[in-house]
Amino acid sequence: MAASEIDDFIGKNSEILKLNQDEEQIDRIAETFKNRCLFITGGTGFMGKVLVEKLLRSCGDLKKIYLLIRPKKGKHPEERIREMFDNVLFDMVKKQKGEDVILSKVAVISGDVMELGLGIQPNDLETLRNEVTIIYHCAATVRFDEPLRKAVFMNTRGTKYMLEFAKSLKRLDFFAHVSTAYCHLHVKTLYERVYDPPANPHKVISACEWLTDDQVAAIESKILGDIPNTYAYTKSLSESLVAENFDELPAMILRPSIVIPVWREPVSGWTDNINGPTGLLIAAGKGILRTMYCNSTCYGDFLPVDVAVNGMLVASWNFLAHGKKKVNQVAHMTSSKEIKVSWHEIVELGRWVIENKMPLNWVAWYPGGSFKTNYYIHYICALLQHWLPAIFIDILARLFGYPPFMLKVHRRLANGLKVFEYYANNVWDFDNTEAVRMRALLNDQERRTYIIEKVDLDLVDYFTNCTLCARRLILKETDDTIPTARRHMKV
């Protein structure tokens, strides 16, 4: 072969190699959502907000996101969506894309999953039926102590209504039901498959429709049996409704574990609630939480919300690209298979961060306390360190003309700890074979954009960011008060 021919051969193969490399770097997940219309329930919730933000930022060529929003606390759905976009969570995407572009991509659909037909107006319903091809059903009450009848209507019957709505769409390609890894608590190692529900969901819905709130409340404990709360019970029922429709709908069940504040993007440490570890962090940091009944060597399965949302989008792409016959229709977004952090490590690390890096304002008691493995010792400590100081502070408040508040705080804390104790004294493991398999399908570009690899958390930095966001967004404590808080902590 002549030298010129060799040069031509190398040149042509270099072009082919370059094309292959370019093709490999195409964001196929973003391409999957291009020109599509999505319908999302629960879009104003914790995970829902992060999902909407990620779709707008990384899959910005989508056509439209329709958000089902109900009036709440006297606020119209349009007002609620404006407030949502004013949140710091959306600052990055608004800066990148422009606020007008972002607002043009999102449309509010007034409705409620607790109402027949989702409470959607006929003209809106017709639009959705003609345009929507992807559904994310995230709406649920996440209160563990929610009365059973309300939880059934919201979580279980709401899912039934959503499935009926999905069947009416003309071009539905994907229906994602966001469940929880903690909804089959009798199974200590949960696999990515469907499990039998604790009861027939249709009969439970019918019974709750027939009976009154008081009548259901009277038999709630008998209905739940060994299941510790209405959240796990109703989410398990919901899963069975989705599984019933696997043959008829392109549906998938997604099971995130305990979802915690944002790890990396768009705002590290961001959260909008005090559920789970964030609530414990604030209570301990304020010096209010002094004792917990917990086996400190146990661990929970935690996953940053941005990683969970990445998993949802990767699972969606995998399903749409390969079809339901070639993928598992149940996928876990969990971490305990690869990362195990004990309750003791979490609490000690959180305490160190608050003591040394990010103190909170007006700490009532120096952060301390401890775990108790004996319930009776915990009960005595709670009486001495929680309830008696609360009564004393409320008496002082009354004497100085202020409304009492500390007993109310401790009642809420006690209710939260009651839920926490069950999960803190038991351990579950979750198989994540599907997530591991999906990782191998991603190219380098997708791995950077939708991180679902083993999360390499710097826990000190992460807890510092979580505490800083809790100060700013939940406690409304400004950064200029941090030096004062440090001095107060020393005192």
From TrEMBL:
<dbReference type="GO" id="GO:0005777">
    <property type="term" value="C:peroxisome"/>
</dbReference>
<dbReference type="InterPro" id="IPR033640">
    <property type="entry name" value="FAR_C"/>
</dbReference>
<comment type="similarity">
    <text>Belongs to the fatty acyl-CoA reductase family.</text>
</comment>
<keyword id="KW-0521">NADP</keyword>
<keyword id="KW-1133">Transmembrane helix</keyword>
<keyword id="KW-0443">Lipid metabolism</keyword>
<protein>
    <recommendedName>
        <fullName>Fatty acyl-CoA reductase</fullName>
        <ecNumber>1.2.1.84</ecNumber>
    </recommendedName>
</protein>
<dbReference type="InterPro" id="IPR013120">
    <property type="entry name" value="FAR_NAD-bd"/>
</dbReference>
<dbReference type="InterPro" id="IPR036291">
    <property type="entry name" value="NAD(P)-bd_dom_sf"/>
</dbReference>
<feature type="domain" description="Thioester reductase (TE)">
    <location>
        <begin position="40"/>
        <end position="312"/>
    </location>
</feature>
<dbReference type="GO" id="GO:0102965">
    <property type="term" value="F:alcohol-forming long-chain fatty acyl-CoA reductase activity"/>
</dbReference>
<dbReference type="GO" id="GO:0080019">
    <property type="term" value="F:alcohol-forming very long-chain fatty acyl-CoA reductase activity"/>
</dbReference>
<comment type="function">
    <text>Catalyzes the reduction of fatty acyl-CoA to fatty alcohols.</text>
</comment>
<feature type="domain" description="Fatty acyl-CoA reductase C-terminal">
    <location>
        <begin position="386"/>
        <end position="477"/>
    </location>
</feature>
<dbReference type="GO" id="GO:0035336">
    <property type="term" value="P:long-chain fatty-acyl-CoA metabolic process"/>
</dbReference>
<dbReference type="InterPro" id="IPR026055">
    <property type="entry name" value="FAR"/>
</dbReference>
<keyword id="KW-0812">Transmembrane</keyword>
<keyword id="KW-0444">Lipid biosynthesis</keyword>
<dbReference type="GO" id="GO:0016020">
    <property type="term" value="C:membrane"/>
</dbReference>
<keyword id="KW-0560">Oxidoreductase</keyword>
<dbReference type="Pfam" id="PF03015">
    <property type="entry name" value="Sterile"/>
</dbReference>
<keyword id="KW-0472">Membrane</keyword>
<dbReference type="Pfam" id="PF07993">
    <property type="entry name" value="NAD_binding_4"/>
</dbReference>
